[in-house]
Amino acid sequence: MAPVIRVVTRRLDGLGEADLDAERALLSAAERHRATRFVFETGRVEYITAHALVRASLAEALDVTPDRLSFVDGAYGKPAAWVDGGPAPISFNLSHTRGMVAVAIGSAELDLGIDVEDGARRIELSIADSYFAPPEVAWMLARPEADQRAAFLTLWTLKEAYIKAIGLGMSQELDRFWFADPDREPVRVAFAADLDDDPAVWRFERRMLGDGTAAGHHHIALAWRGAGELDWSGVA
Predict the structure, then answer these.
(1) Whose CB has fewer CB within 10 Å in the chain, the N or C terminal residue?
(2) Max Cα separation, the chain?
(3) β-strand pairing of 217-225 with 202-210
């Protein structure tokens, strides 16, 4: 049986100070201090909720208390979870945007990435030429004009999920790999000849979360290398 990748999200609308106090209690002293340094309330809420969600979800998966967890950044900033000062047998990835935080948790052998984007975020479609490969730009522009914004976010979340999974972040050029037709299932990736990667080992899934209105939905995408089945039961 393929290992399970659990996806957990938390909506930020309606959170009160009592909710934030409960989540703040899960954080480390360093995380609580950093939360006080945010100038804007939205950033503070996102940070507290995101890091509390990671700690609570990992603690449940590992059957430990949240205070036993710590995090070590990789060379390009991707964190790994440790328990009691040693590497934890688990992989995870975190994403947050206006109105939502999301975390994906899987077995240690998986390379795992998640991205969530606010469907109402402001987008300049002209930047697609700078970040997307030609097949992606062609796919986006072939759609009705009213749908091109959503198409942009579909591509963006898939690409972000992949670069987060490989742990390179924005040091990986986004136009060196592409999704020529994200509407097809399963979603397939292609790589430039000079990239040392194999499309056959990657799996992707994307969804729209929310009520379908421009102000009430989010785009979410996952990328993972290795066997795994997604568990969406923790999605708000």
Answers:
(1) N
(2) 53
(3) antiparallel
> What residue has token string 């040091």?
171
207, amino acid identity: R
* 53-74 per-position pLDDT tens digit: 999 999 999 999 999 999 999 8
Task: Name the residue range of residue 201's domain.
Answer: 4-234
Tell me the residue type at 20.
L
Whether the CB-CB separation of 92 and 58 falls below 8 Å is answered with yes
Quick one: tokens of 158?
Answer: 């898939």
Task: State the CB neighbour count (10 A cutoff) for residue 46.
Answer: 20
Split into its structural domains, the chain has a count of 1
The confidence score (pLDDT) of residue 121 equals 87
Name the amino acid, one letter, at 139. Answer: W
Report which residue type is found at 188: R
Q: What is the CATH number of the domain that holds 216?
A: 3.90.470.20
Q: What share of the chain is helix, strand, coil (3-state, %, to 5)?
A: 35, 30, 35
What single letter denotes the amino acid at residue 81?
A
Note the residue count of the chain.
Answer: 236
Distance of alpha carbon 172 from alpha carbon 194, whole angstroms: 12
From start to end of the chain, where are the E strands? Answer: 4-11, 69-73, 79-83, 86-87, 91-97, 100-106, 111-118, 177-178, 190-191, 202-210, 217-225, 229-234
Long-range contacts of 71-80, Cβ-Cβ distance < 8 Å, separation of 24 or more: 74/167, 75/167, 76/167, 76/168, 76/169, 76/171, 77/169, 78/164, 78/167, 78/169
